[in-house]
Amino acid sequence: MTVEIPIEKWTGKVREVTLGATAAEGGTRSHTVTVGGETTLPFLHFEGAIPNPPRVAIEIVDRRPTDWSPLLLEAWGAVVDDPATWAKAAEEAGADLVLLQLSLTRDGEKPTTAADARASVRAVLGATGLPLLVFGPGQVDADNELLVAVAEEAAGERIVLGLCEEKNYRTIVAAALAHGQLVDSRTPMDVNLSKQLAILISDMGLPLERILMDPTTAGLGYGLEYGYSVMERLRIAALQGDVMTQAPMLVTPGYEAWRQKEAKVGGGVPATWGDWRERAILWEALTAITLIESGADVLTLRHPDTVKQVKAFIARLMEK
User: Fold this and answer.
1) CA angle, residues 269, 275, 277, in degrees to nearest 5
2) Distance of CA 227 to the CA centre of its chain
3) Where do the domains of the chain lie, and which CATH numbers do they carry?
4) What's the predicted TM-score (pTM) here?
5) Nearest CA-CA partner of 267 in 69, 42, 120
6) Which residues, in sequence order, are CB contacts of 202 under 8 Å at separation 6+?
7) pLDDT digits 0-9 by tens, 222-263
8) N or C terminus of the chain: which is more exposed, having fewer CB within 10 Å?
9) Mutual orientation of helices 114-127 and 83-92 as an angle, nearest 10°?
C-alpha cells in the first residue's frame, strides 16, 4: 500500500535579505551573503524551497574580553588582543559573517568613544572580506552614540547595526537609512512585540529587505523551549502570509550558552557533568542546532570547534 505524505501548502515566504556589498555595489566585501527565502518550515525540502542555508557569524570583541570563559580565550589565543587579527582568524575558522561586539569601556575603564568604534570597524573591514554585523554595548545612550558613528564609517557596506530595540530604534534606523545599512530588530521573546517593532521600523521608511528579526532566545536548559516556540510561531505566521513576520531571524546561541554555569564552570561541579571543555562546546552546539530547527537564519557563535560542528550539521540538513 502506498502511503501519501501530506504536504502543507503555504501562501507566504520568508524575505531574502542580503548582507554586505561588493565593490560593484559600493562596498568592499569580497562577496555578499543572502539569508531567508524559505517557503516551508525548516528543512522540509519535500514541501517547499530552502534556497539559502542558515549562516554562522563568529562573534569578536573590540578589546580583549574580560568576561569570556578561559576556554574561549584559550581556543582563540593571542588574536583576542586585536579585533582585526581576530576577524581574520574568524574567517579562517569558517565564519560566513563576522559580528563585532563593541565594549562599553576601553583600557583603564575609559568609555568607548565614537572614534574608538570607528577605528575598530575600519580595522575589521580591512582585515576580512566577510559581511559585518556591529552590535553596541547594550546601553541606549552608548549604543546611539557608537552605532551612529559606525554606520557613517561603514557607509555603503550594508553592515547590520544592533541592537535596534523599542527604546532606541529611531536613532539606529535613521543612521541605517542615511548610510545604507541594515538593522537587527531585537525584542523580548514575544511574537506580537517582534511584529510591532518591525512595523515601527518600517514606518520610518527602512525597506523590509534591510531588517533581520531578533526574537531573543535562551541557552540550553534556561528557557530554550519557550524561545523555540516563539520562533516557530513567527515562522508559521510568515509562511501564512504575515508580511511583518517574514524577516529572516538572527539568534545569539554563543552568548546565551557561554553565560550558563554548565559552560562557564570547570570546578566544583558533579563528576557526572563530564569534561568541562567537551561539555561547554556541546552546550553551545546543542543550543545552536535546536535554534536552527526552529527557523534561525543567522547564528552567532563563539568557539571555533562549535562552528565546525554546527556548519557540518547545516550541510547535512541542506541535503535534499
Assistant:
1) 105
2) 15
3) 17-315 (3.20.20.20)
4) 0.96
5) 69
6) 208, 211, 244
7) 899 999 999 999 999 999 999 999 999 999 999 999 999 899
8) N
9) 30
